[in-house]
Amino acid sequence: MRRMTATDTPQLGADPAVVGPYLARVLDAPAWQDCTVTLIAGGKSNLTYRVDSAAGSAVLRRPPLGHVLPTAHDMRREYRVMTALVDTPVPVPRTLHLCEDADVLGQPFYVMERVEGLICRDALPAGYADTPAERRAVGEGLVSVLADLHSVDPASVGLSEFGRPDGYLARQINRWVKQWDATRIEGVDGLDPLARDLANSVPATQRNTIVHGDYRLDNTMLHPTEAGRIAAVLDWEMSTLGDPMADLGILLVYWSEASDGGDRDMGAVVKSATALEGFPTRAQVAELYAARTGLDLEPLPWAVAFGFFKLAVVCAGIVARVRGGAMVGSGFDGIQDRIAPLVELGRATLADRTVH
């Protein structure tokens, strides 16, 4: 991690010589004046920093450096939904301040409390959830929090105007088709037919709810000592009002199983710790969710197929940007090889109405 001090340059995105005095003023706490700033997560997504001072610790989120699309990396959206959810059963960090003045750090940003916990992707830390029963509890905790989110009445928390739920799934298809059109690469033949099949079979929405937009294991923080308790749900930049099946669908797209092979294995952009012994299977996740929410799972295969389509478009976009020299660093090898299996998974899921 990169620790910044007051001698560093502001181009790093959160100059402590600016952040400290600003927080001291807006939080009415002079002890924030002298602070250190540590980059926790960076890249092409939003940048996340830990801010430490005599006043305590906090987390600062801002868009990436450089050009940002007007509708992307919406700090106001993240801040608004977390602020609204703070006293609900959905665990979120408590928000502290939203800065909409781009002159301060070059982009709007917000500050929230720092939550203690673990962010896990393809593995669990040694000594954490070592038993199958504990891993089962982690899986059930993830499902329970998603069900809790989808049970929150948007109007009751001031989010009745947070999105346009009517026609949400159809608009999602149109949005991601446009994304594909903007980043087309050679050698991908199946995305267009899959998009057409999805557009021609959009299911009816049973219920409109708050949706996270990218709900998966590594967008949550696990409680550091209580396996099965979710300490916080993070990364709300794609949240809106819409069909909750879209959230369950993308969760299952990223949910690995130990027995996965074939296209599931070849299309896995990132392996998930859910493949470890004890975690519920994808079918069990769906059943747990249905039992908690009362929703019919009939539309779920469509939502999973759409999730595969969306992830394939994301991979194509990465390939296009790498080829154009717009992405630097490592970790992009083999991304193009994931696209065809993802398309096939989407096609098969839609065709046989079974979650693969």
CATH class of the largest domain: Alpha Beta
What low-confidence regions span 5 or more consecutive residues with pLDDT below 50? 1-11, 67-72
Decide which structural class fits the backbone: alpha+beta
* Spatial strand order of the main sheet: 1-2-3-4-6-5
Walk me through the structure:
This protein has 356 residues and is of the alpha+beta class. The chain folds into 2 domains: 2-113, Phosphorylase Kinase, domain 1; 132-352, Aminoglycoside phosphotransferase (APH), C-terminal lobe (Aminoglycoside 3'-phosphotransferase, Chain: A, domain 2, Alpha-Beta Complex), CATH 3.90.1200.10. The chain is built from 11 helices and 10 strands. Helix 4 packs across helix 9, helix 7 crosses helix 10 and helix 10 runs antiparallel to helix 11 (335-352). The chain starts with a strand and ends with a helix.
Gist of the model:
The chain has 356 residues and is an alpha+beta fold.
Which tags fit this structure?
356 residues; alpha+beta; Phosphorylase Kinase, domain 1; Aminoglycoside 3'-phosphotransferase, Chain: A, domain 2; 2 domains; 6-stranded antiparallel β-sheet; two-stranded antiparallel ribbon; 11 helices; 10 strands
